[in-house]
Specification:
Helices cover about 60% and strands about 5% of the residues. The protein is mainly alpha-helical and about 450 residues long. Its EC number is 4.3.2.2.
């Protein structure tokens, strides 16, 4: 990667560079050009391995020297390509000229005319993007995504039995446990992780309009689709046999939509954790030397989750735009995808930054069990659901003749604050069986969590 310029436009290349720099190995201009060199080199090796057009298979040493152009790709090549492109005004042509120069330096001038043979620039580009995106997702984004899920899973297991007042519509509701609520997010994210991990990365190599026309003109007898398929699959990609000049980008739309979906689930997590912090259910652990406010010394702001929210929104905005626009190309080719795809790294960068903040944020919070217990003990009216349900069961079993149990509890509890004594007196006077009465008299808000604890065991 090139050195950081003195003035950067994107915060991903400035303030947040340390958190996203790994993506630059793949989704930067330099990463794309390295992949272009890789595709050009592997195409040369494919053609010579088949002894096409008077060529002969290269020796192991020659192949190794060619592949070293990829592994050794660095600042010298970046600078040289910049000079070449200033003349060619075409990025892929500059890569072709760079490869030809290296062939000369390696004494392989005799195969130089096979460089970029029968290929359109999009043959090189679509494979290069597939390679760089797959590497970025598999080696950088997915590991951080899995680390986020793992950090959340640890919290879900740790807090699985800690009862918490639920708040449906923001109002006190049937209690749950902190761990079960976090486990819901783990389950959602695990499902998305499996889908993203199973993503296909498609590639084409079939010429200017996807017809192999130039290939057939050069050698009508050769089975060019088989050559193309073996070449694309040899790069670790899935071959797309039916395209225009461009690979149709459907795999990109699918991938970016899934990552955007994951972003939105994470956004839901961030807003929920923020709210739990606001309610006091989660307390933030002070970090040495950190300042929450420039004027209010007491503050510890939930900045990790706020930062994550904003970056998840930016990421999804970019990835959604990519998903929507990349699937359309006028007739056999237009260049709208060329500039659009240069923002893939920006979309993933904001998501990666958000993941980093969520992992760090989860490590800087703990639950306040005293406040959780106090909040539950202040809301005995939530047991109205349990009481009316038990009465209905008793009526159905013939042990009660109470009419409309729901209305009875609604009259007692709706919009009112009642305490334990109120409920004990109410239950004591109910026409229900003694077993049912005993169960209700033993019930407390903290104990009214159903199977919340054991539901955590359903995590994959």
């Amino acid at each position: 990667m090139s050195p950081l310029p003195p003035q950067v436009l994107s915060p991903l290349d400035g303030r947040y560079r340390a958190a996203v720099t790994e993506l630059g190995e793949y989704l930067s201009e330099a990463g794309l050009n390295r992949a272009r060199v890789q595709v050009e080199v592997e195409w040369l090796i494919t053609l010579t391995d088949r002894s096409l057009f008077g060529s002969a298979p290269l020796t192991a040493e020659q192949k190794s020297a060619l592949r070293a152009l990829v592994t050794g790709f660095g600042q010298a090549e970046i600078d040289e390509l910049a000079v070449l492109e200033a003349t060619t005004r075409h990025d892929v042509k500059a890569v072709e000229y760079l490869v030809r120069r290296r062939l000369t330096a390696l004494g392989l001038d005799h195969i130089s005319e096979l460089t970029h043979f029968a290929a359109t620039s999009e043959d090189i580009n679509n494979l290069s993007y597939a390679l760089t995106v797959s590497e970025a997702v598999r080696k950088v984004w997915l590991p951080k995504f899995r680390a986020t899920i793992d950090a959340l899973r640890l919290r879900a297991l740790e807090y699985r039995a800690d009862a918490m007042l639920a708040r449906t519509h923001g109002q006190p509701a049937t209690p749950t446990t902190v761990g079960k609520e976090l486990a819901v997010f783990v389950y959602r994210l695990e499902r998305l992780e499996r889908q993203i991990s199973a993503s296909e990365y498609l590639g084409k190599f079939s010429g200017a309009t996807g017809t192999f026309a130039a290939h057939v003109a050069a050698d009508p007898a050769l089975d060019w689709p088989t050559v193309s398929r073996e070449f694309v699959e040899g790069l670790g990609l899935t071959w797309n046999p039916l395209t225009t000049q461009i690979e149709s980008h459907d795999w990109q739309a699918e991938l970016y939509s899934r990552v955007s979906h994951a972003n939105r689930v994470l956004h839901n997590l961030a807003t929920d954790v923020w709210t739990y912090i606001s309610l006091g259910y989660f307390r933030q652990i002070p970090q040495a030397g950190a300042t929450g406010s420039s004027t209010m010394p007491h503050k510890i702001n939930p900045i990790r989750f706020e930062n994550a929210e904003a970056n998840l929104e930016l990421s999804s905005a970019i990835l959604d735009s990519l998903s929507a626009t990349l699937v359309t190309s006028r007739l056999q080719r237009d260049l709208t995808d060329s500039t659009t795809q240069r923002n893939i790294g920006v979309g993933f960068g904001h998501s990666l930054l958000a993941l980093d903040n969520i992992v760090r944020g989860l490590g800087e919070i703990d639950i306040d069990r005293t406040l959780l217990a106090s909040d539950l003990d202040s809301n005995w009216e939530i047991l109205g659901e349990a009481i009316q349900t038990v009465i209905r069961a008793e009526v159905s079993a013939g042990r009660s003749t109470i009419a409309d149990p729901y209305a009875l509890l609604k009259e007692l509890t709706r919009g009112k604050r009642i305490n334990q004594a109120d409920l004990v007196a109410f239950v004591a006077g109910l026409e229900i069986g003694e077993d049912a009465r005993a169960r209700l008299l033993a019930l407390t808000p903290a104990a009214y969590v159903g199977l919340a604890d054991s539901l955590v065991d359903f995590l994959p």
